[in-house]
Amino acid sequence: MRFHQWEDFLASGADACGFLLEDGSTELQDALLWHIRGSRWWHAWVALSPKAPVSPFESLADARQTRERAVHAAVLVQSARAELLAATHLDFEERLLQFLFIRDGAQLQPLCDRQSHYLYRYPLAEALGADEERVTRVLLDLQRRRFLEPGLPLDRVRHCRKCSSAHPHYHDVCPHCRSIQIEKSAALHCFTCGHVAPQADFMQDSKLVCPQCNASLRHIGVDYDRPLTQYACADCHHAFIEPAVQVRCLDCGELAEPDALDVRSIAPLRLSARGRAALREGSSAEHLAAFEHAQHVPPSAFHQALGWTLRPKGDVGQASLVALEFTLPPQDGRAQAAVDEGVRRMYELLSDSDLSTVDADQRLWFLVTDGPALIKRVRAMYPASGEGQLRAAALNLRDVGSAREPQQVMSRLKAELR
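Above: the chain's sequence. Below: its structure in token form.
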């Protein structure tokens, strides 16, 4: 189907698994790319025809292709998305990771923009539903958690430590008093007292006299010499060879030394193997947070460990199985952030021998030594009056009776969630 305007496509009620932008002005093409990535078709394959105009926002499209190749690629992306667990609501972080997951080898490309607070932007990430500040924060966090990995560095940028701006202004200052009132000037060195100062300070009635010891300087090499200093400060009269460099942030005015700035590498970003594994297991943000921790394992490994503990001749000891389920208000970003932070804190309560996983229903499972104690401490993080709701249940594995199958025991515990 062919449409001339985005509004025409919306009015048609048509659905799409891909788009091909064939002709039009650069402005129209850019507008269409932002419309598509900001709509419910954000995940669709978007191709530009080989003759489409070149644009700074071309990275919002997937490739330059013929119609036949674009159709084939769109079908592949649609099939890849079907592999992911369905979710009624995806927050920005999940949408971004899913976008990269369903495109083999896809990368987020940085764009240098002098109007940007951070100097470099990631337009595709912004188009998927976040402002520049949040995009920067999320991308740094995803790299820290190793869900995203950088490609080859394109640049290195220095940021103000106070406001994170990438707009520093460098200026020369006096290394003694930090004044900017400096200029190139010849200097003299008095042999009698060792005083070094600009030549103008030695001039008295057309004669050279040391301002510190009042010695007359008649013969160069005998009474005085000219050191290598090239600069003088008009405020403190200090003479020096090279000025110091000071940085002033053009956004917040903070003064700093150059080595006090934060240095960040700018590179394309791609989904890591760790991020891909996280998406295969479950895509909600609180469970992505769990993948930061060594105790988190895939469901298959968790079932194997639970089955080993439940084996007929096994020694259950003090082992407990714990199930946790979070219910969040629809599209409530504050509640989601509270749960995300709580999951991170929760993992601080676990020992190295404890295990966890997440199932297809976005439920967290733990195999720990003391289940009731874990639930008590987790409930303290999520009071009933707080954001979202927590349902939890624990089962001492000594009380499972004849049940020896992991799925059977887990089903029993799910029924006890409250």
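The first strand starts at residue 18 and ends at 21.
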